[in-house]
């Protein structure tokens, strides 16, 4: 199949190509098309791919700045775009941090800002897909992945699936710590519910027995992996679940803000400075391009969630090795193409497959896979992926406090999508005000004014909505 990467000049593109060059995904893709609006970034990334070592030969690569050209004949589209580049990420974080709020790119105020300016671009991609490759699937890794995917469902329906490696990584790390062997491509006995960057592992079975309570009661086992170290053991035992790493920003907000304020630069500033220096060097590095990229990638991985690691604690070597999201994306693509079903934690609509009923012409009402959130809302949960798409697996009902947080953040997500798709400034203000990490109309007004100053295109977005 032909695979198009939208955002083909992105820093992580070599991870996808590396996975396609050897191993389980070798031969899956017959041609890789890289599309980006920035030809200099395309030149840098193609230099890295050309210099990549190893015995495997990846698919032929073609780079283009024309989206219609890139879409022609494409069966799969993988989207990982960042409108505004890393400079935009800096503003997402700094506007919030300067107001005393959490400065993080996908969580809280920064995530809302990121979504407001990203959703219109992604809708443009989806409409171009409808015109030039109507049968193609869109695997969305553009952040904030849940909100972006929800905005695209009205255009692409079930042919858009959101991915993230964070939830699947949590499951794998918890299973290793508990001594549970998970069969490849199967999540039988795994219970996970939530939204992107806001989810909980609540069940982990081995031989028909839930071993998660034992893991949560074992301080030593919890200390063996990142999510187990992020939260006090008594807290996890009382919660009865393992939170996604991004829930650190909710459960330990004050610690996160203090750690971020103590850093000499924000995470976004660090990445922005790195990429400004790196990309021109990659394009001119010849056979040395891959080595330069790999050194930068490892440095970037070492800084991931640094605010959550005390006393200079280093990340696990398995995490520093990189990868994760590309394996999720390619596993989904392989199943969609008919090479065999698989099970993955994905972002898709919260509706179970409807039971057929030949006795009536009326379709039965959709049943929610996660009880509580609306059946038409995009959530993050285990799915079986087949050529028909991502089919959610039924989950338990979240606990009271988890449900309250999940519903409130989903309300914020839907307000953000409304603001971005309808140009409604009042909805954007409400999204900021309702977010649990803001929770203030006055701060919401200051935030939106700050983001409008940083991103003048937002003011144009409100042209068709409320003033």
From TrEMBL:
* InterPro entries given in the database record: GlycHydrolase_4_CS, Glyco_hydro_4, Glyco_hydro_4_C, Lactate_DH/Glyco_Ohase_4_C, NAD(P)-bd_dom_sf
Limits of the Glycosyl hydrolase family 4 C-terminal domain: 192-438
- The UniProt entry annotates the active site at 165, 246
Q: Which residues bind substrate?
A: 89, 143
Keywords attached to this Swiss-Prot or TrEMBL record, sorted alphabetically, are: Cobalt, Glycosidase, Hydrolase, Iron, Manganese, Metal-binding, NAD, Nickel
Could you give the cofactor binding note from the entry?
Answer: Binds 1 NAD(+) per subunit.
What Pfam families has UniProt attached to this entry? Answer: Glyco_hydro_4, Glyco_hydro_4C
Give the protein's cofactors.
NAD(+)
State any single GO MF term. metal ion binding
| Residues binding Mn(2+), per UniProt | 164, 197
Residue numbers marked as site, Increases basicity of active site Tyr:
105
Source domain of life: Bacteria
- What are its GO biological-process terms? carbohydrate metabolic process
Protein family membership: Belongs to the glycosyl hydrolase 4 family.
Tell me the protein's name.
Family 4 glycosyl hydrolase, alpha-galactosidase/6-phospho-beta-glucosidase
In its UniProt entry, the species of origin is given as: Arthrobacter nitrophenolicus
């Amino acid at each position: 199949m032909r695979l198009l990467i939208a955002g083909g000049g992105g820093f992580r593109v070599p991870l996808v190509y590396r996975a396609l060059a050897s191993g389980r995904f070798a031969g899956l893709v017959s041609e890789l098309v890289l599309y980006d609006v920035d030809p200099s970034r395309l030149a840098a990334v193609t230099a890295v791919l050309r210099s990549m070592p190893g015995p495997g030969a990846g698919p032929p690569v073609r780079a283009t700045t024309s989206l219609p050209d890139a879409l022609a004949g494409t069966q799969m589209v993988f989207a990982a775009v960042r409108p505004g580049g890393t400079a935009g990420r800096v503003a997402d974080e700094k506007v919030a941090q300067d107001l005393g709020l959490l400065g993080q790119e996908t969580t809280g105020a920064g995530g809302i800002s990121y979504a407001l300016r990203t959703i219109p671009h992604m809708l443009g991609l989806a409409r171009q897909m409808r015109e030039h490759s109507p049968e193609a699937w869109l695997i969305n890794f553009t952040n904030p992945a849940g909100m972006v995917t929800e905005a695209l469902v009205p255009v692409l329906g079930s042919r858009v699936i959101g991915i993230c490696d964070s939830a699947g990584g949590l499951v794998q790390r918890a299973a290793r710590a508990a001594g549970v062997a998970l069969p490849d491509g199967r999540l039988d006995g795994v219970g996970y519910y939530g939204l992107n960057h806001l989810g909980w592992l609540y069940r982990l079975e081995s031989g028909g027995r839930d071993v998660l309570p034992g893991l949560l009661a074992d301080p030593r086992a919890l200390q063996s992996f990142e999510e187990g170290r992020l939260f006090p053991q008594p807290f996890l035992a009382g919660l009865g679940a393992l939170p996604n790493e991004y829930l650190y920003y909710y459960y330990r907000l004050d610690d996160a803000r203090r750690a971020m304020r103590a850093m000499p630069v924000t995470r976004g500033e660090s990445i922005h400075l790195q990429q400004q220096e790196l990309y021109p060097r990659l394009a001119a590095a010849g056979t040395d391009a891959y080595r330069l990229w790999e050194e930068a990638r490892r440095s970037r991985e070492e800084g991931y969630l640094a605010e959550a690691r005390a006393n200079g604690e280093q990340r696990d070597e398995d995490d520093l090795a990189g990868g994760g999201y590309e394996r999720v994306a390619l596993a989904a693509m392989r199943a969609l193409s008919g090479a065999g079903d698989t099970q993955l934690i994905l972002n898709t609509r919260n509706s179970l497959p409807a039971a057929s009923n030949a006795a009536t012409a009326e379709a039965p009402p959709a049943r929610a896979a996660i009880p509580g959130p609306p059946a038409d809302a995009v959530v993050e949960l285990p799915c079986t992926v087949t050529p028909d798409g991502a089919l959610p697996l039924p989950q338990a009902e979240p606990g009271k406090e988890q449900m309250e947080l999940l519903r409130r953040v989903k309300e914020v997500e839907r307000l953000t999508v409304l603001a971005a798709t309808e140009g409604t400034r009042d909805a954007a203000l409400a999204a900021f005000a309702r977010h649990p990490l803001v929770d203030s109309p006055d701060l919401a007004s200051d935030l939106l004014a700050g983001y409008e100053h940083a991103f003048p295109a937002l003011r144009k977005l409100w042209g068709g909505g409320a003033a």
